[in-house]
Amino acid sequence: MELVVKSVAAASVKTATLVIPVGESRKLGAVAKAVDQASEGAISAVLKRGDLAGKPGQTLLLQNLAGLKAERVLLVGSGKDEALGDRAWRKLVASVAGVLKGLNGADAVLALDDIAVSNRDAHYGKYRLLAETLQDGEYVFDRYKSQKAEPRALKKVTLLVDKAGQAEVERAVKHASAIATGMAFTRDLGNLPPNVCHPSFLAEQAKDLGKAHKALKVEVLDEKKIKDLGMGAFYAVGQGSDQPPRLIVLNYQGGKKADKPFVLVGKGITFDTGGISLKPGAGMDEMKYDMCGAASVLGTLRAVLELQLPINLVCLLACAENMPSGGATRPGDIVTTMSGQTVEILNTDAEGRLVLCDTLTYAERFKPQAVIDIATLTGACIVALGSHTTGLMGNNDDLVGQLLDAGKRADDRAWQLPLFDEYQEQLDSPFADMGNIGGPKAGTITAGCFLSRFAKAYNWAHMDIAGTAWISGGKDKGATGRPVPLLTQYLLDRAGA
Asked: Which pLDDT score is estimated for 424?
């Protein structure tokens, strides 16, 4: 879908569908009043009949109004005379998009300047959310269906805005389009079946990105290199699978050569059976989503490449498949990590932190400004925060605050959990430096505590996306593309874009 920004009178535009807002109690804003006047009061007449209450997201389609060049006018309720919240705004935009999809028009014009959104400026903030909602709503994954989705007639949407805000809205659309592209890439990778999307496949995807972008260098470390580096924890996770592990290194140089890079580390367990600590069979198909951390890092990189942000960014994808076999790691095994610390593997289903801990040590060589790891790490995070909010921990208050702020601005929120020393004691082991689990209490926090032991050389944050990376079960089941908006916003802020 093409998004265009223009500054012209709504009543004068030629389009298949013109969308204008109407408030509750039949209240018309400036745009709606002008269109009503041009149509000789046709809109007022409809509203007097009580055909539209004006509640947020309610719609009413009018055909062939006199005095207008638009073939149709779609009235959308904007609620009471107060600003909408982010969620209500997104629902309103999604409602409009749903109606437009059902029409045969090739284009539409949205004249929604009169709607205010709380905590969003009238131009960039409001229209960024609108553009992301429209474009993310276009996503379809049907590559394995015999019957493909019908091609959509709607090809172009024009946003009508006041002249003073046009440049900011254009910037918002540019950023939103890049984020939507990154989210779609992330969702595609997450939704692929695990017999297709394995560590070597992700490596090929990374190489394809490198071929398409001169500023991006890609290196793939195979299982021999992983072992030779002393990554005993990482190597142990993949040793039970026929699919060999891969550490994928993507280095984007968009800033000055001397600028320290930001590093994103993604957990890429392309299928997680739990290993010898086998998971229950019900719902195990969704363990293909255990690589969504790596997928979100690739999606964020796609957005950065599209925007050509003036920063240096290193992306590390820790990819393996966790399978039970005669060669698999056992509960009770002890491994030596790249840092030299030893880990007693008490549960082979706590494998994500094992690939991540060695990758966090590997990240030291880049002398980073900050390191953020993203992982579908613990079911405990879903218990704590549900499926709406990402868990966030870190060793630097400024970094954590920047990520929290980016989440609010991107409407992709996170919530900070503590890393108090008391929780570290739950990882004590009588046989090794630490165990890989800390017992049934505070599972998300103890997982963060485990990772923190490998991230002392730099500013670090950990994002647990177990609840937010995919929708579980039902007709809407699938990858969400989160937290690409949050991560991209964080990098936009660092780039001053």
From this structure: 98
187 is catalytic: no
Write down the catalytic residue from 91, 279, 408, 453.
279
Q: What is the pLDDT of residue 202?
A: 98
Of 120, 353, 409, 413, the active-site residue reads: 353
CATH code, 440 = 3.40.630.10
Band of residue 468 on the pLDDT scale cut at 50, 70, 90 = very high
State the pTM of this model: 0.97
| Structural contact between residues 218 and 250, judged by C-beta atoms closer than 8 angstroms | yes
Domain that holds residue 113: 2-138
Q: Which of 371, 406, 430 is nearest to 490 (CA)?
A: 406
Residues 218 and 104 both lie in one domain = no
87 catalytic? Reply is no
Interatomic CA distance for residues 54 and 52, integer angstroms: 6
Average pLDDT over residues 151-155: 91
pLDDT at 81: 85
**Could you tell me if 100 and 203 lie in one domain?**
no
Segment (H or E) for 211: helix 199-212
